[in-house]
Amino acid sequence: MKKDAIAILCAGGPAPGINTVIGSVTKVFLNAGYRVLGIHEGYKTLFSEDTRHEELDFEFADTVFSRGGSSLKMSRYKPKDNEFSTVFFTKNNVKLLVTIGGDDTASTSNRLAKYLAQNNVKVSNIHVPKTIDNDLPLPEGSPTFGYQSAKEEGVRIANTIYEDARASGNWFILSAMGREAGHLAAGIGTACHMPMIIIPEMFNKTKLTSDKITRLIISSMVKRKILGISYGIAIVSEGVFHFMSEEEIEGTGVNFTYDDHGHPELGNVSKSHIFNMLVQRKLKKLGIAIKSRPNELGYELRCCRPIAFDLSYATILGNGVMKLFQDGVTGCMVTADPAGNISPLYLKDVEDENGKIKPRLVNINSERAQLVFNNNLHFISKKDYKAAKHLLPEPEEYDFYKILNW
What we know:
It is a single chain. With 406 residues, the chain is of the alpha/beta class. It has helices at residues 18-31, 42-46, 58-64, 87-91, 103-118, 147-168, 183-191, 210-226, 246-250, 271-286, 308-326, 367-375, 385-388, 400-404; strands spanning 5-10, 35-39, 53-55, 94-101, 124-129, 171-176, 196-198, 232-237, 292-297, 332-336, 342-346. Strand 7 (196-198), helix 8 and strand 8 form a beta-alpha-beta unit. The radius of gyration is 23 Å and the shape is elongated.
C-alpha cells in the first residue's frame, strides 16, 4: 500500500501567491509524513487515464514559493459530472485534494466532493480562494490572495500612465480585469486618485449601458476642463460587459469574432479600445477637442511576484489547510481573518441553487465606497450646469447623479 498522499490542483487564471500556497502546503504536509502530488492542467487531466502529475519535494517547494505565476500548469477546463472518476484518488491513496482557484474552481470542487462522498471514497476537499478579482464570498475585510499584489502592480502602471497624462495634457481610458465585480478597478482608481471610476456595482439603480459609461467619462472630462485641468484617467472595470446584452455589446460597432455558440468573443478585443472609441465618437459629435488613449490593465497583473502581504497571507492559508484537515473539515474554503485566525467557509453555504459559488461584489452602499465616489471623482453635477453649457448643449444629461439615478 502506497503511503498516504495529498494532491494539489490549480485551475482558472494565474494570480500572485499561487506558488506560495503550493510551497506552504507542500512543506507542511511533507513534514507530517505525506506524499504531495502536484497535478498539472487542473481538472483537464485529473480524470483522464494519464493524469499529468509529479511528486513534490521540499526543494521544489522552497524554490517556487516566492515566485509569480504557477509552478503547476493551469487550465480553465470545467468537467461535467459524468466525467468524474475515483481512479486517481484510489490509485494514489489520496486523502486530501487541495484546489487553488476562483469561483469556477470552487464550484467544481463542490460538485466533486459530493461525487466522491456518494461513491464512498473518503477524500477531504479544501479549497484555497484565489483570484485577482477579489470576488469570492469571504468574510468582510478578507481579500482573496493575489488581489493585493495585482492591485499593487496595477497602481504602479497606472501612476506611470497618469504621469504621461499630466506631461502630455491627454486623457487615458483604462480597462481593468474583473469578470463580474469591480474590486480591482475601484482599488486601482482609488489609490491613483483617478477622476472617474466605473464599475458595474455603480449601476444599482439603473440599467447599465455603453452610452451611460460614455457619458460618465465625458462628464469627468468636461468637469476637469471647467477646472482648468486638461488631463486625466478614467478606469472602467471589464465586468460591465457581464451586465450588457449581446445586442448592447454588438451595438458598440466593434468587429467581433464569435464562438461556436454565436456569442461575441470579448477576450479577443481590448476593452479599453472599445470605451475609448465610444468616447471619441461622442466627443466629435459634441465638437469637444479632447484627446484620449486606451490602455489595458490585464494579463500583466496576473503573474507578477507576490508582494509581502500575499506572501504572508498565502503562507497562512497554506498552513491553514493542514489545520482544517487535522480538524476533520472538508468541502470548504480555507479563510483567515485579518488577525490570522483560520476558519472554514463551507461551499454549501455560499452556493446558489445550481451549485455555483456566488460572487462577492463591491458594496457600493458602504461608507468606504461612498466616500470615494462622492469626494475623489470629478464629474458634472447640478452646480456645474451653467459652466458646462458652452461645451454641453444639455449638461444635465452628463450629471453623474442623474446618469446613475443616485
